[in-house]
């Protein structure tokens, strides 16, 4: 994996690709930016996994976890991906995160 720095524009584009479940693009971003992208936190300290837990397919969540996304990272409100999935009634994603 690369050590390319993650800019705000890269992170926003990545979050957008997550939201539409664009697997090829997400895999490409992960290959290029690696762990830095998977650990990136937005202004509210949301990670890609938190965003995916809220709105992406369970397979996307699995891809992020298998690629090394941290599962227990907390945002500003001390919530992690599992909490976001549960709050949005994403039982399919909750099962992946457990």
In words, what does this structure look like?
With 98 residues, the protein is an all-alpha fold. It is 60% helix and 0% strand. The chain contains six helices and no strands. Helix 3 runs parallel beside helix 5 and helix 5 packs antiparallel against helix 6. The longest helix has 16 residues. It starts with 7 loop residues before the first helix and ends with a helix.
Tally of individual helices: 6
The chain-level structural class is: mainly alpha
- Described by its quaternary structure, the protein is single chain
- First and last CA, distance: 27 Å
Q: Summarize the biggest pleated sheet.
A: none
**Beta-strand residue percentage:** under 5%
C-alpha-based Rg, rounded = 12 Å
Number of strands: 0
| Overall form | globular
The whole-number mean of residue pLDDT values reads 93
* Element pattern in H and E: HHHHHH
Contiguous low-pLDDT stretches (5 residues minimum) are: none
- Considering DSSP H and I runs of 4 or more, what fraction of the residues is helical? 55-70%
Short description, anyone?
By secondary structure, the chain is mainly α. It is 60% helix and 0% strand.
List keywords for this structure.
60% helix; mainly alpha; 0% strand
């Amino acid at each position: 994996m690369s050590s390319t720095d993650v800019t705000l524009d890269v992170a926003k584009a990545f979050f957008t690709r997550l939201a539409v479940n664009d697997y090829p693009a997400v895999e490409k971003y992960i290959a290029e930016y690696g762990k830095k992208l998977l650990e990136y936190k937005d202004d509210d300290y949301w990670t890609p996994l938190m965003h995916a837990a809220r709105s992406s397919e369970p397979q996307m969540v699995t891809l992020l976890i298998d690629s090394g996304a941290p599962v227990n990272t907390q945002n500003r409100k001390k919530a992690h991906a599992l909490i976001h999935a549960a709050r949005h009634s994403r039982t399919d994603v909750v099962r992946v995160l457990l």
